[in-house]
Amino acid sequence: MHLAYPAVLAALLFCTGLYGVLARRNAILVLMSVELMLNAVNLNLVAFDVWLRDTLHSGQALTLFTIAIAAAEIGIGLAIVLAVYRNRGSSDIDRLRDTAETDDAETLPDSSDTASAARAEGPGDAQDAAGPKSASTAQTGKAKKAGTTA
To answer: DSSP 3-state assignment of 26?
Structure first.
């Protein structure tokens, strides 16, 4: 048997799995694509073990180990997908990224950034650079000043 046949088949399986991982949006299909990639690796391990005529059959032993790891991976992966589906109502990977929790420190401006913006823009624009909450406070303050001076 030539080594080229199983190597080409394994390359096709791996490329199909890689396309599935990169292009699919459903988490279950992504897990199936990872399984295709692992099966391509297993096919290569067995083919090279037969081609090299290894007396220890280390390629086949490593294949059994990879199959056991893949079974554990698919069990844990499906459990995670089912838990996410129950909580969010969808297993769409893009929707999971959109609803990810963000850290509050990432969304709020830093106090040093606000202070440097206030120095650069002048005294009137400093309140607007602080954010929407400070801008509404600034508008009520301006309204109070207009009411007291009139």
So the answer is: strand
